[in-house]
Write a structure and sequence with these properties.
- One of its GO terms (cellular component) is plasma membrane.
- It comes from candidate division MSBL1 archaeon SCGC-AAA259M10.
- It contains 21 helices and two strands.
- α8 runs antiparallel to α10 and α9 runs parallel beside α10.
């Protein structure tokens, strides 16, 4: 796999060089070394790996999972260097901000941990934060597959290891390229919409990137609290588009709009947003309720109220927590459990109840929305939901032990936000001690790749040191 790591290091170098153009445009020349230095190191390592090793080998699923898990850690590590050099952040806080960016989470330490406000950093650093979310939104490996000359089983295993299975075109490489074309199209539409709504060009570019990525980083300290209705409407559109499967987008682009409108995931998404917004509207107003519920369910993290106010009730926080756990569509830029798994689990429960009233010999296939599901589909959905909730509970309990002054609902809210790659916060991230930040970083990374690649990495590490 060493030659594959060469491509990863070279890809990291290329990503780090993109903000150099922004720094040059805004004449922030003193910040250019913040990107060039880590890019040179990563690129140098990639070249060394590429020259020293030239192996093909047969990649197995376990190895693909390890490669993807390590790639995301490396990306976050190198991505932290600009924060250390330009903003003088400590290594842990820089790693936190970088991981939050690449995992499209949106939790940030720039609004409290070391005295920074989000408006203080230079344009190049603000762009870097947004760009990391744009890259991480559809996945580092998707970008990797879109540019490398590899196809076949190799590409398929890497694609699946990053929690993606939908193949819209015969070749995985073509699928990856299509995803980025659609992604870029929505980004451009978002920029145009924001500018027409009255937002400045720089803010529009950043918010469009983080909106379609369902990331949530903003270039203002209060996120979207200071913007009017037209801009909020564009943001809601981007968040929903980002949370819809790219496979459905392709069908819609091909003229099959009914596939989009008839999707159970889309219907459930709109229904949950509507019901949750109604539940919160009396307390926070219809505008805030629609925006906040959309932000929570899609895993974006944009906010019209800044941080979630401390005087919000446990019920209000609970509603948003449930939405953050459910997440958006499968094959989208959203994370968490995903709506299709919830649909399968609920459909299976109804199917079991229906079967209980029929003769034992009756053959009743499990059909949901006209699609027949097999036992393995139910097992996969149920098992992942179980693992996801279990990981969330354990992480939340650890944070409760380390931060006993915070209420249980606040801790679960913050933990669900990190693991669901959302970014809404009750303020825990700002004051979290180092162990809690590491827990949240672990949740962000694990949640982005649907946990299993990091379970595989942990298993391999313990195997290497002889623990089993």
């Amino acid at each position: 796999m060493r030659d594959l790591f060469a491509f990863i290091f070279l890809l990291i170098a290329g990503i780090l060089l993109v903000p150099v153009l922004v720094a040059a445009i805004y004449m922030e020349f003193s910040h250019i070394p913040s990107f060039v230095l880590p890019a040179a190191i990563s690129g140098g390592i990639g070249i060394i790996f590429r020259k020293k090793y030239d192996e093909e080998g047969n990649l197995r699923l376990g190895e693909a999972m390890l490669l993807v898990a390590i790639a995301w850690v490396l990306m976050s590590g190198f991505g932290a260097v600009p924060y250390i050099i330009s903003l003088n952040l400590g290594p842990l806080n820089a790693m936190f901000e970088s991981a939050a960016g690449f995992t499209a989470t949106g939790l940030t330490i720039l609004q409290g941990a070391e005295g920074w406000l989000v408006e203080v950093p230079p344009h190049s650093m603000l762009f870097w934060r947004s760009f990391t979310q744009w890259v991480g939104g559809v996945g580092v490996v998707v970008l990797f597959l879109a540019i490398i000359p590899r196809t076949g089983r190799f590409a398929r295993l890497l694609f699946e290891s990053e929690a993606r299975e939908e193949r819209m075109l015969p070749r995985i490489k073509d699928t990856a390229r299509y995803i980025y074309k659609a992604y870029l199209l929505f980004t451009i539409l978002g920029i145009i919409g924001f500018v027409l709504g009255g937002m400045g060009l720089f803010a529009a570019v950043n918010h469009s990137m983080t909106g379609i990525a369902t990331g949530g980083f903003s270039v203002t300290a209060d996120s979207f609290a200071g913007y009017g209705g037209p801009i909020l409407a564009v943001a809601i559109f981007l968040m929903i588009m980002g949370a819809i499967s790219f496979a459905l987008h392709r069908k819609a682009f091909d003229g099959n709009w009914r596939a989009l409108l008839n999707s159970w995931e889309v219907r459930l998404m709109i229904g949950l947003i509507a019901l949750s917004a109604l539940a919160l509207a009396l307390d926070v107003g219809i505008k805030n309720s629609i925006f906040q519920t959309t932000s929570a369910l899609t895993g974006t993290g944009f906010s019209t109220t800044g941080l979630i106010p401390g005087d919000w009730s446990s019920f209000q926080k609970g509603v948003l927590t449930v939405l953050m756990v459910l997440g958006g569509g499968y094959g989208s830029t959203s994370s968490a459990i995903k709506l299709i798994r919830s649909i399968i689990i609920i459909g299976t429960l109804l199917w079991i109840i229906k079967r209980a009233f029929l003769p034992d010999r009756a053959i009743v296939p499990l059909k949901i929305g006209g699609v027949e599901y097999e036992e393995k589909d139910v097992m996969e959905a149920s098992m992942y939901a179980f693992i996801y909730i279990g990981f969330l509970i354990v992480s939340s309990l650890l944070i409760m032990i380390l931060m006993p002054d915070w209420s249980g609902i606040d801790v679960i809210f913050e933990s669900a936000s990190a693991q669901g790659n959302v970014g809404l916060s009750v303020g825990i991230t700002e004051v979290a001690p180092s162990p809690v930040k590491w827990i949240l970083i672990g949740q962000m990374l694990a949640g982005r790749l649907e946990i299993l690649p990091y379970v595989a990495l942990f298993y391999k590490i313990t195997q290497k040191i002889g623990l089993h």
